[in-house]
Amino acid sequence: MWQEFKKFAVRGNVIDLAVGVIIGGAFGKIVSSLVNDIIMPLVGLILGGIDFRGLSWKVGEAEVKYGAFLQTVVDFLVIAFSIFLFVKLLNNLHERMKKQEETKQTAPTMTKEQQLLTEIRDLLKQQKEMS
């Protein structure tokens, strides 16, 4: 069982997933900072100096912090849009590579007659230009 676990743990997909989770966590921190420190203060300024982090309702003893929720929603939207753009970029690159590969595979090869005719045509063009 230990050997099976070792094979599973060092398989490429598991390591790729771990790297993705670590990078995703770091990316999440960057986006949270972008939203909390840049976007939301500017939105608050535009809306008359509102600080969204401080927005809350008191319901009896409980405090409903809907401002923090709004910031989390903006976090999500920025992350989702960033991932959308990244996936779109990767798909475009993949499509370009696929088209290039298809054109390489479908490039017609000329017969000997076609090659000779092409050479004759080029020679005739050169003679015409010289005279």
What does this structure look like?
This protein is mainly alpha-helical and 131 residues long. It contains four helices and two strands, in the order ααββαα. The chain has a two-stranded antiparallel ribbon with strand order 1-2. Helix 2 crosses helix 3 (66-106).
Order the strands across the largest sheet as they lie in space.
1-2
Strand content: under 5%
> Runs with pLDDT <50, length 5+?
none
Return Rg in Å.
30 Å
Instruction: Give the biggest beta sheet.
Output: 2 strands, antiparallel
Strand tally: 2
Name some characteristics of this structure:
about 130 residues; two-stranded antiparallel sheet; 4 helices
